[in-house]
Amino acid sequence: MLRATDVWFAYDRSPVLRGIELTVADGGIVGILGPNGSGKTTLLRVLAGTRRPQRGSVTLDGTPLQSFSRVELARRMAVVPQETHLAFDYTVTEVTMMGRYPHLGAFEIEGPSDAAIVEEALASTGTLHLKDRLFATLSGGEKQRVVIASALAQTSRGYLLLDEPTASLDISYQLEVAALLGRLHAERGVTIVISTHDLGLAGTLCDRLLMIRAGEVVADGDTDRVLTPVNLRAVFDVDTEIIRRPDGRRVVVPFPPEGGSHIQS
Amino acid sequence: MSLKARFAKTVVAFGAMAAAAIVLGPLVGPTTVDFRRVFDMSTPFADNPDAQIFFIARLPRTLAGATVGALFAAAGVVFQGLLRNPLATPFTLGVSTGAALGAVLAITFNWSIGIAGLSAVPVAAFAGSLMAVAIVYALAQARHRGLSTTVLLLAGVTMNAFFSAMVLFVQYFASFADTYRTLRWLMGDLDVSSYQPLLAALPTTVVALAAFAWLARPLNLLSLGPDSAESRGLDVTSAQRVAFFSASLATGAAVSIGGPIGFVGIIVPHLVRLLVGPDHRIVLPASALFGAAFLVACDVVARTIMAPVELPVGIITALIGGPFFLWLLISKR
After folding, report:
1. Separation in Å, CA of B70 to nearest CA in chain A
2. What is the ipTM of this complex?
3. Labelling A39: which of A129, B77, B239, B297 has CA 20 to 30 A away?
């Protein structure tokens, strides 16, 4: 269980996170939903232990994150950033292999078992056929799937923290990545935390949502209870209608507030 | 092919190249030296002029070339990985200009501080490089908790310009003879005629190369970006510190032996990456070995192309490096 208690964080003076409380149960898919600049990415970094909160704490199974070494933490938790740009031309296999870093000693070289883990991770993200391609030549969706494979090679049953995984993708790739995450959750039982402002992704994929605005929690709970027009209005300043499809999926239809649009026509 | 096999194959191939350059380099020169007589063990060394020319007159210079080439090439790889910029060189962060300031001061004011049998110029050059490293590090550290590579780059470029101005300022007071010596030094010249400078640089070289060996995997992760590297279990700030100091030390040691010989630190890493791919565990040893062979070969050209005049090797590397750099810029996606 990953738990944030009264987390405050500031890069300089003004706090970006103001007393965040969040509990992620093992095997859940939790969405951190909020508009641009609400502190989603920062919260994800604090949850991943790459930024330490000035006040409050984050614990993994009851132990504060700072009590883990970087390597111990990396074996249990992997982060997928919004976009990945490499400084050099690595292949897909080499990028995925970088996920094995916390499992090897300082001068150790990856062996056959690491290669098998990498192949399996590529296969389960549907990118095995790309394994010899240069990462830089892939499409945005393919890149994101390879980075997810690298995260799986790093921690196969642990926590996957994804920072706006679909924000820079076309709609078809967005759906592709969302479907992949749903499948990985169902088949492997990985715990997934996603920061997003994508209402569709939040509504269809997440079983629990934390809605934040300006670094503060606005609503927290099961997606059904939290994803309401009232909350969405409070967080995003838009009016919405939530449509329940026969298969149980929620579709959020936004429309501008009556007579009070941001953009005057 | 497994990484181990690729590593072994690469080290053997590039190692053979470096060994060949080191053995063949000293054979070339104004006096022809016969290879068989050099290694003829039946003649005593005192009666074997071929062996004397080979081991006493020419081998120190060749080994200096190999050491300097290896250090510049490997330091180039580390700086490019640290700054996540394939166009970075060992001179980008001001280390060599700091060394130049030290050397110019020693030449102009006829310093006579010798340490460990070294003359004042290499000692002052090394001290100058350490000063530059300390200043650039302090600047990059000042505004961040960790090391910011952006600030590092800005601080380095700024200090480069500042030290260059200081070099000119000092030169203004120099005599014509000293100005000529300074200019010669700035061209990058492997004018080494004893084993002393090599022995003096040995500790720094060993420390730097050991650090490079450890850095290979961290540099791979750093090319993903600092946040991604950290979430994969790397202590990014420590790795960046080790990279910055070890590559700077290597550069300082190399500059103190051979002066600021340009382009080795960028040509070699790029050619090696074209040949073996970007994995630093292979690129680093391959670049060090190829750098050694490359600079020895350039020095042979420098010594012979206008014989009996010996050109500074820095002119040769720059003549090759300039067009190469342009080709790199144009062909980059």
Report:
1. 21
2. 0.88
3. B239
